[in-house]
């Protein structure tokens, strides 16, 4: 991992410092193709691609971590409890590249973070060692996942309220288009994962009537 210039990426008050040159959602078939942060991925191509060698990634998710993550270590990060699973590795049969991974969860924040690397376990440990609780700044959260019980308009309204609760301002811009129903959220700017000062204006572009 490059130890030069870094940028903060996070959700709410939890963030991780990653190298400035890392991308965001640099994926093909759901697989990182270069060093990247993964947050708020709306669609994943239905295809298979093994991870290339020498690629690190950091993924943010909400709720319980996926899979059977068993906490082997419990610690405190600035007063917030963090559970970490063991670092495992998998040899990809497609290209013979080994991938190491580990996941931490912060139950009090409703958040999990997974680091993966095809360089080695040291990179995984280094990335997860940079998890911090922000004193100044807020990570723009991902959009709400869809629900059969809530219309797009309701989903967008709940998301806007969450932004307001975090201390951000919200502007809604409507775009008339065919296809998605009214209120469908098309774009969030700045994009989710970006760490911004409290009071920053977040623009939601939604489908108009």
From TrEMBL:
Domain PASTA stretches: 161-206
Annotated InterPro entries: PASTA_dom
Stored Pfam families: PASTA (PF03793)
Protein name: PASTA domain-containing protein
Organism of this sequence: Nocardioides malaquae
């Amino acid at each position: 991992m490059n130890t030069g210039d870094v940028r903060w990426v996070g959700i709410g008050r939890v963030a991780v410092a990653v190298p400035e040159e890392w991308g965001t959602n640099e994926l093909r078939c759901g697989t990182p193709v270069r060093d990247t942060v993964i947050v708020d991925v709306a669609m994943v191509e239905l295809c298979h691609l093994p991870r290339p060698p020498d690629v690190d990634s950091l993924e943010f998710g909400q709720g319980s971590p996926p899979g059977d993550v068993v906490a082997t270590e419990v610690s405190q990060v600035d007063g917030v409890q963090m559970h970490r699973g063991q670092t495992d590795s998998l040899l990809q049969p497609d290209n013979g590249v080994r991938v190491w991974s580990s996941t931490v969860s912060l139950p009090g924040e409703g958040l999990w973070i997974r680091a993966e690397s095809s360089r080695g376990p040291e990179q995984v440990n280094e990335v997860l060692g940079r998890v911090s609780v922000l004193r100044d700044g807020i990570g723009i959260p991902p959009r709400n996942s869809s629900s059969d019980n809530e219309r797009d308009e309701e989903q967008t309204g709940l998301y806007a309220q969450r932004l307001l609760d975090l201390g951000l301002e919200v502007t809604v811009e409507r775009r008339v288009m065919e296809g998605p129903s009214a209120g469908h959220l098309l774009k969030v700017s700045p994009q989710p994962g970006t760490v911004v000062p409290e009071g920053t204006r977040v623009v939601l572009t939604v489908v108009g009537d």
